[in-house]
Specification:
Elements: H1 2-32, H2 36-45, H3 53-64, H4 78-90, H5 101-111, H6 137-146, H7 160-172, H8 183-189
Helix pairs in contact: 3-5
């Protein structure tokens, strides 16, 4: 009987020790692996050593919208994450400081092509627009191809070649070479 009590006490001590030591250790180890938001960000932003063209695109858009004042260097640093968080809060998006699909789409909507009549939508005091903004990169690629600035495949993706073509076009029209289709760029591009 005494041996059984000793065994129960021993097992209880082991269980308590496991709760006290193993749980924090597990949380620490879990913290070392990327969370879901980081995995999604990598899927939308991509992983490249050094400067990332997608991060550069995000920085340009944040800069155009006056959320980012730093250098456009393609690196996801603290200042970029803070700007993303501020943008997300302003637009009622979960403020993670990470580039998820919803954030990327909203950035593109607010800095890109307005196809209805090439005028930005009027926003009411709630921040909602009076119409949807449309962003069609295939159309942009087709127009850039017709002007000789884009030589790549018309795939509807904002890849590095598309960004370079947009920058070349912007420089040729004496516009700020941001690589982002904004209203001024669209006004010049849609003439072709």
């Amino acid at each position: 009987m005494k041996d059984e009590i000793k065994l129960l006490i021993f097992l209880a001590v082991i269980a308590i020790a496991a709760v006290i030591f193993v749980k924090p250790l597990n949380e620490r180890i879990t913290g070392l692996s990327p969370d879901q938001a980081s995995k999604k960000e990598k899927r939308h932003v991509g992983m490249v050593p050094g400067a990332n063209p997608r991060v550069e695109e995000v920085q340009e858009m944040l800069k155009e919208l006056k959320f980012y004042a730093g250098f456009v260097d393609g690196k996801m640093g603290k200042e970029t994450k803070n700007a993303l968080t501020a943008f997300q809060k302003r637009n009622n998006i979960a403020a993670t400081g990470k580039v998820d699909l919803k954030t990327l789409n909203e950035l593109r909507k607010q800095t890109s092509v307005w196809f209805e009549d090439s005028k930005p939508p009027v926003k009411n005091k709630d921040g909602a627009s009076d119409r949807e903004i449309s962003y069609d990169i295939k159309t942009v690629q087709l127009l850039l191809k017709s002007t000789g600035f884009y030589k790549g495949k018309i795939d509807g993706k904002m890849g590095p070649e598309t960004v370079k073509a947009i920058k070349r076009f912007q420089r040729s029209k004496n516009l700020k070479a941001s690589g982002i289709i904004n209203v001024k760029t669209w006004e010049k591009l849609k003439k072709f």
